[in-house]
## 1
Amino acid sequence: MKRFLCGVLFALATVPLLAGGIHGRVACAGQSDNGGAVVYVAKVPGKTFPPPKDHATMDQSNRVFLPHVLPVLVGTTVDFTNADPYLHNVFSPEACADKFNLGTYPKGEKRSHTFRKECFAPVLCIVHPEMEAFLAVLPTPYFGVTKPDGSYDVRDVPDGSYTVKVWHPKLKGSEKSVAVHGATEADFQIAR
Amino acid sequence: MDGEKDLRARAEERSSGARGSHWLFRYRRLLQVAGCVGVCLPLAGVPFRAAAAVGARPSREEAPSHVIGGLRITPVEGESWLRHLGIPFVGSNMGRVGLWASPPLNASAQPSSGVGPDGEFLLSGADLYRLNCRSCHKADGAGVPPEINSLIGPVQATSPVMIRAQMKQRGIELDAKTVNKLASQAQTALRARLENGGVKMPPFRHLTREEVKALLAYVEELAGIPGAERKQIWLSEPAARVGELLIKGTCHICHEATGPGLAISVAMPGAIPSLASLPRDRIRSEVIRKVREGLSRPMPMMPSDRGEMPIFSELEPAEVAAAYAYLVGYPPRP
């Protein structure tokens, strides 16, 4: 019985490691930490991805966009909420993001935009110039964002060979070919 | 360094301009005419009209003048704004931070325009800010975040020049259409905030269009928007209106319109006497001293015990006297 239970526990513990995906670390040279880099599969040959029905959310709280970097699949609608007791304005100057401008709105209100093109777009608030965030609109749903320690996890990637890219708001991107077989490790280094 | 020199030179220029000008008296004739309309009609229970002098500082003596739309003085009524919000007086900075900062150098450090020979006040945007906004947003407009928001950012957002400059700092070039759209949205939002209030800010619906115009021109100057000094306007308004602005814009934040008077302060330390009780319980000179210099409350525990009321030395005696007269002439309502 004990052996059986140990076996079950071992199986449960190892399932996440065996599930398909890419994980590793991104070293961001010259930055205070290694967070905020987007790691994503650039293309899955012969496969397209319909726009997700679920909306993504970017909140504004204490004059900070949360999250600071939000990766989404092309076609995703992002809800921009305002949790602050004052007005915020949300807009982007990027043409690939339709130069969207949601206007100025108060606490509790939510305004949305659907991102239909691949894009890396800054998101700004004209009322609070110190506020800035980034939308990464990506061609596949296989993406992850690095934590401050540089670690990332791109889940549920089918086995195969892919070009994996890294994008960072301030640093030059990077890419490499990765052959995914189950849980696969890939590390990156990026700099200015 | 050059910028600093520029600022100093501008400040000195303004300062000497203010000292050397006798613009109030140069407009005496205008004020006399406007004063007849402004003072006599409200006494007869008819909405009065005020006069506006519009001009570009520093040459405001040369500014053209015109009569602006009518407005009506109404009594202050209802609960204090703090009671409306359910916030205790001791737990809030609202209404009590007017002396926490000085106006920045880029804003006109104007003294009150004062009273003309005919009893009319000549109000600048800076005066309107002092009567309506300063006790919460401070003299520099920075407020006391997170309770009281700064108005600098929302005001700067109304300026295409500031938007372009801010975006340029980020390395972003915005096209004119986008810039103008953003500025226009911010302008609409700012006016709506003034009209409707916010989560904690009271609405200022009683301000006239011309008063809003003067006020916004001043806060633009406060926010450092280039060219704002040329948009300043001056309004000739009767004392009762000045009193109304001060009472509604500042005093009513903490004081109920009606209710117990000074006796409540004796019975319950920390309790705030109502506005209606002030002319009843104190003579005018006492109120002026209490407001501008502080004054011991009745039966103080210590000789220096002047209670919790902040000092409003930024107000002129004539303005406090106008508020007193307004409370007498327009008795507060429950």
Note: DSSP finds 15 helices and four strands in chain B.
## 2
Amino acid sequence: MRGRPVLGLLPWALFFAAFGLLPLLTALGLSFFAMNPLRPDLTRWIGLANYGHALTSPAFWHALRTTALFVVVSVPLTLGLGYLVAALLGRVRRGEAFFRAAVFFPATLSMVVISLVFKSLYAEQGLLNGWLAMAGLPPFHWLQDPRLALPSIIAMDVWASVGYYAILLLAARKTLPLEQLEAARLEGLSFGQIERRIVFPHVKPVVLFVILLDTIRAFQIFIEVFVLTRGGPLESTLTLVYHLYERAFYHFEMGYACAIAYLLLLLVGAILLVQRRVLREREAVAA
Amino acid sequence: MKRASWALLACAAVSLAPLLYMARVSLGTGNALPIAPADWLRGGLTLDHYRALASGGAMPRFALNSLLVTGIAVPIQILLSAAAGHALARGRFVGKGVFLGLAAAFLILPRQVTLVPLYLLFAKLGLLDTYPALILPHLADPFGVLFMAHYYQTLSPELEEAARTDGWSPGAIFWRIVLPLSGPGLAVVGVNGFLTTWNAFLHPLVLTTSESMRTLPVGLALFAQSEYSVDWGALLAGSTLATAPVLVAFVLFQRQIVEGLLQGSGR
């Protein structure tokens, strides 16, 4: 097998280079320029000024804080519920296929569609306030109250993501030998004890992996904000990628937007490294 | 045991209720909120919203654009993934490890990084607001290639070796031996490619400017931006339309979707 099959790589490699790697490197290059596509004559090299601007800009830090808040609340909720649902799915004897499909289906949907449905549920005259009114309660301004908007988005995001992680965690549980569970049951261990002593240690690598996956995903939240709140009210839902989008496509600060993108990339890279370090230390301790 | 079933029934209800609500409103008559629970339990079923969508406005165009983009991008993705995956699994060449590493890194890094450069690239090529701008970025997705490389590694090369000693050309071997054996793997690549292409939002949003070039997700999202007079009936009918192909794919290919997810397909 020499030579020839490599030709098959070429067509995709060209697309990957042109629309993957090249833009990735271009973004790094652009982050050192002041660049407005409407005034190409003013494009100029400014070194690290875009990064300096971002790191001293209250708007950037606000977006970063908002995103971090979203991550810190939504990731534990999503994964905690996902773990619980996976445990339930692993325990149920009848109808598992139906329950699995029902819980998983939302994860395959367009986030735009999900956001639109929730926008109608959260609307001033929407279903949620309709139910509150039926119960004789005053309405909530789900998306208009600066204190409620981010929690409302988080609730929707958790709803949309739980199934995805439940399926990943369920697959990990299924790799546990049934005999081992059966033996534990015969020894008289309760469900809680089996979960803590046998199942959790077994699925722990996957748990750590999905923490990483969901954290990286959550840092990129955009569609929910775009459809539901456009960053408002009072910028209470203005996340990092939404900030990037606004800078690039409303203010045409293309170089600055690329610097924000690379800061996001560095952040995600740092999370990956920390996670890997933690994993390695754990292994060293275990060994 | 019983308790687990009840808890799961509650989960399934919470999971499906918003979608049933969407479909129910889309089949009702009301355009404006409030759409009271009483209305959607008692009210009749009509196709009024769908008829309105079909007869006027841009929704048919959005649907056509989505169908065209997905219908063109996904078959090409499948072929590219098979060819490149096969080359990576069978070939031995300098830089293969680097290539695999780059592709894998691309799967996990935030794609928004490429947003501005892609916009400027397509602007420079004069391709903003065209079908190539909507289709080409999808062809760079590394998931299918990595998945197929893994798939071919688990497939014995014996048949290919035998054909080669019989004097078959590499092209003939690929089309007549490798591809026919690739069905299960390509089904995973195809259905996951369909989901990511059909649901794509940020790139299509940025790379199109005129209403007639919007895909369904972009069209629907911008349709909902008109703050004061959102036609919720039409909007949720459009959302239901955008969901229907996903539901069909889900029913037919759930196993493949899960397999893709376990192998690292994004969402």
Note: Chain B has one domain: 58-262.
